[in-house]
What we know:
Layout (H helix, E strand, L loop, with lengths): L16 H29 L4 H28 L3 H16 L8 H15 L2 H16 L3 H25 L5 H16 L16 H4 L8 H15 L2 H13 L4 H26 L4 H22 L5 H10 L1 H19 L5 H30 L4 H19 L18
Amino acid sequence: MPRPPLSPEQLVKPRHFEARIALIFAVLFVSLGINLPYFPLWLEANGFGAEQISVILAAPMFLRVVTTPLVTTYADRAKDRVNVLIVLVAASIALSCGYFLPPTYWGVVMISLLMAVVWAPHSPLTDSLALSGVRRFGSNYTRMRIWGSIAFLCANFVGGLILAWTSPQAVPVIITISLAFGFVTVLFAPRLGKPRQASPLSVEDLHEAPKLLSRHFVLIIAGAGLINGSHGFMYGFASIYWKSIGLGDALIGFLWAFAVVAEVFIFAVFTRVFGHWRATTLLIASGIASVLRWIAYPLVWPAGAGVAGFVVVQGMHSLSTALLLIALQKTIAETVPEDRTGAAQGAVYFANGIAMAAVTLASGPLYARFGVYGFLAMTAVAALGTVLVTIAGRVSPTAPVRAARRASPDR
């Protein structure tokens, strides 16, 4: 069905569109760059055990897989997606203040669940605004989105410095303050009205996902989901482990930031170095790198490799994560018709989210019983994912839908 025409106002490019969207990405990613490496340290500092930490981290992951598509769908139907984004950021600020209350286990679980509903959609909604600019005005998505990665990296490093001067109790304060800056920023977001094309991760696109369920595509997203999910142990307990062996907060921040630098580096050189590789080959390389990485983690410190060893394994993030992200997009571009790409993105989001949540949930008991050697269990997860991708490589990647008409651009 043809999409309704844009209004005359929607055809006019807002002033400084790219700069404003880039600023939103940057400011909103600061809180994420604090939460990922340091929230587990805050939980441990408040007396929570490894199993409790894994539940607090994993429960919101399960929930947001369901709620984020619902929120983005609602935003698509609102008068303007920016209005929804403003409300979500404001709600995130209010809920984050709940972490200032005496931290009881069930209290933190409930706050984290509520935060997942309003915090997780920030990125896909900003993505949808940026992509509307790409379609209507020819804006460059990468040049806007990269500022989110830069801000995430800086938050990793600077957050470590702040915690070195203070304590892990500063984590909720930093998150709330960064969200407050985010609220001020989104107040000045460019208004684009209703989109003509569904936002990333919308329910409308997910309804189309069953049409993609060819054997090749299912094996790809299942295998990639497991490889990606194997990182859950690291995200949940790497900072806690490093702290336990005496590494300072500033050094921990550097290690996290270095992983992001390595990831960005791969994005920069990908076309020249890996551009001719098949998508399944890239995924297999990512899986092998993940297996090697999880084998190396528990051996670095006992072997005397010290901080340099951790720098090397963190640098492998460029292969275990960046290659996987690129390979998934390459798979979608090569095997999925254009008018099904939204559904494909939704299916990938669901597979990655469920796998990451399940592994994170299992990571608590693993760390409680085996400590850093719990990483060895992640080798089995990544290896299984690599096997599934290898099988997918032997299955015809023919798109599951025959000829599909090209989706009309949002302009």
